[in-house]
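User: Fold this, then the next.

Assistant: Folding the first:
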Amino acid sequence: MTDYQNYRDLAVSFGAVAAEYDRGRPGYPAELFDTVERLWGRGLKGARVLDVGAGTGIATRLLAARGAEVVAVEPSGGMAAQFLASSPTLPMVRGTGDDLPFHDASADLISYAQAFHWTRPELAVPEAVRVLRPGGAVATWWNVYDETVPWVRARAERLAAALPDHYRGYGGISDHTRHFAPAGLAVERAVLHWERQVTVEHVLTDLTSRSYLASLSPEERAPVLAAEREAMTAEFPDGLVVEPFSLDVTVAVKQD
């Protein structure tokens, strides 16, 4: 099995933990969408947006709330079912960024929230260029745990030790300038910082939805989650956790 096939297997694993994904994953601050608009040079209101790798619709719902005419694109059956349960009024189609099921020049913005790294860029970038209208853009963004914070770094070290064949961290995952610039897109990038306060149990739900745990059987996940519950409870005895994120945003604009 090739590394690429292994990677696709990880992507498929999300369907089994779609409910945990929807409950546990962080959303995005309003500053993210302000930044996308600034880097793009136009507003989201009224824009035709394809939210690719939409998952359970966390970003899709926020884009719609900004006034975008958004269509979700999701390959996983499990994630799509959760999307329809969580966002019944929003349109969704099954598909991937590598083969977008849309006409040429039919979208103003293509967004990838926590999702571009699941594509094959040699396919996804030309597909984006094909589907975008002149002046349209691709926007990719990632919430990445801020490992400059000691407890976050300690957790990453525990997970790396517990899951040496699965946990890889997030280093470099969000910088895809190298894929967009050669395609003739004008690329801008920004990094935002924000926090959310959640319970220890919420943190564990979020962890369950991460690919390095989602790809394991429930029996394999259980001892890892138990160890994390013990460590996090010791770190946060009141049961409340402030999670710090770096939010990496890239916007690549198709020239007129």
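Now the next one, as you asked:
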Amino acid sequence: MTLSAELFFSFRSPYSYLAIGRYRALTKMFDVEIALRPVYPLAIRQPDFFERNHPNWLAYTFRDMMRVAQFHGIPFALPQPDPIVQDFATRKIAEDQPQIYRLTRMGQAAARRGKGLAFADEVARLIWGGTPGWNEDEHLAGAATRAGLDLSELAHEAETDAAALDAELAANQQALEAAGHWGVPTLVFGGEPFFGQDRIEMVLWRMNEQGLTER
């Protein structure tokens, strides 16, 4: 019996990147399907989040995400450019965001086609894996192709069907909160949320309880 789960994911989240490749690998090793449900990052949903957080939060997060990458042998570098336009001195989020809306809508368009997990993994490798200018269509087209998709098709849909895609993205966020969490990456299996890149072994344990089999 094929098991199914949902992965709530943000393109701006380094921990989402550190998790998605390993979750994608699970779908190749085991008889399980993981549907991607993208959400907008906290910087969009709660623009004052970084301004009101503890002063140590950002520095600790940078330290931690780098050592997690080193521990798992995952290529990691700060994005060039950042998917979110933010003043790191003040932590203020800019109103004009040329990257994240288009990118997240394309992620949802890929999810419509049942290839969201692959697309998000390939794009996240560009963003967080050290590719300068990852946002250029040349790079994104390659990521889309590796995921079995066509970038021009996704980009056109992101532009012409933005309102419907945004409604689906809002529904993803509502579903995440209904499942019992609010952040990413969160995998929901059997109605149970598993938050963070460090819960993958626990997810596998729970799936084994439900009869997970190798492919």
